Fold this sequence. Notes:
The complex is a heterodimer. By secondary structure, chain A is mainly alpha-helical. Helices cover 64% and strands 8% of the residues of chain A. Chain A contains 15 helices and 7 strands. Chain A has helices spanning 21-47, 54-75, 83-108, 116-136, 141-145, 147-159, 186-209, 228-243, 247-265, 269-288, 290-300, 310-322, 345-378, 382-406, 424-445; strands at 2-7, 10-15, 167-170, 173-179, 182-184, 212-216, 219-222. Chain A has a 3-stranded antiparallel β-sheet, with no helix packed on it. In chain A, strands 1-2 form a two-stranded antiparallel ribbon. In chain A, strands 6-7 form a two-stranded antiparallel ribbon. In chain A, a hairpin with a 2-residue loop joins strand 3 (167-170) and strand 4. In chain A, helix 2 packs antiparallel against helix 3 (83-108) and helix 7 packs parallel to helix 9 (247-265). The longest helix of chain A is centred in the C-terminal third of the chain and has 34 residues, at 345-378. The radius of gyration of chain A is 24 Å and the shape is globular. Chain B contains 18 helices and 19 strands. Chain B has helices at residues 2-29, 31-36, 41-48, 81-88, 99-103, 105-109, 116-124, 140-151, 182-186, 190-201, 225-234, 273-278, 282-292, 294-304, 327-333, 344-355, 391-407, 468-484; strands at 55-57, 60-67, 74-78, 91-92, 96-97, 133-136, 158-164, 171-177, 242-244, 248-250, 257-259, 270-272, 359-361, 366-370, 376-378, 384-387, 421-427, 436-443, 450-458. In chain B, the strands form 6 sheets. Chain B has a 6-stranded mixed β-sheet with strand order 3-2-1-6-14-15. Chain B has a 5-stranded antiparallel β-sheet with strand order 8-7-19-18-17. In chain B, strands 4-5 form a two-stranded antiparallel sheet. In chain B, a hairpin with a 2-residue loop joins strand 1 (55-57) and strand 2 (60-67). In chain B, helix 11 (225-234) packs across helix 13 and helix 13 crosses helix 15 (327-333). The chains are: A mainly alpha, B alpha+beta. At the A-B interface, helix 9, helix 12, helix 13 and helix 14 of A face helix 1, helix 2 and helix 3 of B.
Amino acid sequence: MSTAVATPGRIVSAFVPRKRRGAELLLLVLALLIGVGAYALVGLGVNDEIPTDTLEYGGALVVLGVACHVAVRLTAPYADPVLLPAVVALNGLGLAMIRRIDLAELADDPDAKTFATQQLVWATLAVIGFVATLAVIRDHRRLQTYTYTFGLIGIVLLLLPLVPGLGVTINGARIWIRAGGLSFQPGEVAKVCLAIFFAGYLVLKRDALALAGRRFLGIDLPRGRDLGPILVMWLISLGVLVFQRDLGSSLLFFGLFVVLLYVATERPSWLVVGAALFVAGAYLGFLVFSHVQSRVDGWLNPYDDIDRYYQIVQGQYSLAWGGILGRGLGEGTPELTPYAWSDFIGTSLGEELGLTGLMAIIVIYGIIVERGLRTALVCRDSFGKLLAVGLSVALALQIFVVLGGVTRLIPLTGLTTPFLSYGGSSLVANWIMVALVLRVSDHARRPPPDLTPTSANDETAVVKLR
Amino acid sequence: MNKPIRTLAVGCFALFAMLLINLNYVQVFQAGDLNDNNSNKRARDAECSRERGAILVGGVPVADSLRSQDELKFQRTYVKSELYAPVTGYFSCVYGTSGIESSQNSVLSGSDERLFVSRVIELVGNKQPKGGSVLLTIDPMAQQAALDGLNDLPGDTRGAVVALDPQTGAILAMVSTPTYNPNGIANHNGAAAQRVWERLTEDDPLRRLNNRATQERYPPGSTFKLVVAAAALMNDYSPDSIVKGGTTLDLPQSSDTITNSGGSNCGGNEITLRQALVLSCNVSFGDLGLKLGADELQEQAELFGFNEDFFDQLSNAESVFPSELDEPQTAISSIGQFEVAATPLQMAMVVAGIANGGDVMRPNLVQEVRSPDLEVLEGADEEVLHQAITPEVADDLTQMMVEVVENGTGSSVQIPGVSVAGKTGTANSSAERLPYAWMTTFAPADDPEVAVAVFVESTGVGFDDVSGGGIAGPIAKRVMEAVVSR
């Protein structure tokens, strides 16, 4: 896409701006086919017939997809063409798998709680959020004006679950709020706000934070007085771990900040400091908190106590049962794993789509992250760069932490699988994140404003631009 | 800022690569082990609803999977279930497996690597995978004769019979009473199966689920004198060597004595080894054991298979000849008491080894392993476990055992027209319960086709009416007749 054009006397790296909306539409059709096809196959696998509501369901999915596409065409015509189809494909697969678990639960108990319809409502809300974000925020740089506002909102959202009467504890983690019959995970939205805040804040402070301090073991350590922000972030993350018992979010927020610090200052030493603080925090957490110890024990020795670590063990059995090619949609028994439709949707997909399908899903995630980082590379303003990096890295870290957890690569932490898991807050927040990346990308890939003067009538020009 | 972003891209790539590698590890390399885990309900349920291969005896299925109407699709069904239960074991989706159902599970369930090709063909043809079948070495006539023999004793008999082909180690008959009906455990009706299971497992005084032929050890009594005699013959004794006779043997380092059954003097103070065996003279063998020493006895016993787990096709207990015996213990051990304990299978192997010129064969239950389309994947394993004695010693011992049957305690196993070798045993280790009755024997003595060990733990007769020859002998005879006359 970017080609180096050499003209005598100077070398210019020229980006050839193309809209590529046609490519997006084609990929979108493919993505919708995957989503609707998966839904039909789930019915075929479980009940031996294509669900009668496939047309309605497919119609709804197509309407959502096309709405997004039209919104991008109108408001961000130069945006990256791959991101939207990738996200639609994941969302469709997630919906199909949630429906599949619903069917299994309904077979056991006709009055079982189902999630797929609710998730479709959430997806609609998420798409509204996506379109609204693109429509309202026409230039991402305006967000920079509200840097501290977003920071404040982010912190408040993080703290909300701790407010008595508002926050509720589910499965040991106090990361939910419940108001008027609706429950919400504010941490997911806080993630977006904090990414904006970090980007805006670091654009301002990067020069100071880049100053070198003492040299130790070949790396220039930051100056002691500049350690303030990272220590504050470290304490906040520890607070999330201690008071909300949320290992995943804690790691995510801290990791995000450290990475952005590194990108903004171009100083690898921040990574070293961050890693040291992370290790210290993790070790402290392990020593002090039984819930951290139990997660680590469940990771290392789940088979020593199969009843206690039932979920992680079932997740492993689920993956093994899927094998290379998977059982086929509707043909496995992923519902044996607790929370097969939310936290453990990764292993559910691994059981029915196999290693092949789950690897494809991970590669789609990889593509989303890669397109986000590419957007950051070509973006011309520091804030846009940091924002795109922040959003992409937050996504990458979250995927690694949750999929690594359910597949027993690392200890299990409670985070949602972006776009796949059941959960409204997560879905809405992630779609808004994608809208923001598309916004930055549209800006980055747009042709630069034409500044060459119309040379024909120089004498009439009031101001000479040359 | 582009340099760190590029570095970051590499970092993200590394994270995703770790996820992918780990997934390959779990879903490909670990998958087999995870699917074999007992607590894995997915694999277990799938195994239950698969068409499991048959267990065959003489070409006829004794365990088979029949179509059922419930969600598990196939019901494991046992034919002549009580006759074959000690061998087939049971297959239950809830209570697991035992016996051949357990040890041959990979073939029967179809997960065996040798069935890989047929599995792929079934996968391509979209057919349900089927298991292979297992043909047992059991001779149906001998098996029936063994069970009938035990059942014909008065009252509720607890006992076991093992018949071996001495030349191959093939198990021709293996019964244990009281037995059980594996259909009750395999029943898909959960409540009914649970009742059966609880009755069989919760403090069942009859221990019906135990295969007494391989899982339980008992003092072998006088049948162990075969091992002592073998040790003597291997140590320059001959059948005509003079050994101590008389009514009592004073044990060194103690005031205890060994006496003979019925207080006899074995025909004098000095008798031949041959006569000692024919009359099953305790005094002679106690003294012989002291002269040979505990180490020599242990070595000989271990060559016959004691203190070793030589059998993995069924649950198997190691027979015991203890170490570090003092002299009184050595003398008592020489007549098969003290802590000497043997499974009926072990005692059958002792006589089978003698019958086979000294080569003790590893016992084997599996004649053939077949794929679902009846292709033979594996034949019977014939393997020499140990050479326990030399062919010459085996000949001498055989001659002595023939005399036991013709002139001694083993007259009840005489078969007209067939030369039979044998040794009886009666182990009365406590006055509170009936003595154990043993009979170990093989026939024909000149060209052995079958070696049998019969063990009766208790039956409906009086204390004084129990003797190896009287109780166990007739059963051994029926089993040998079933094999020799075929």
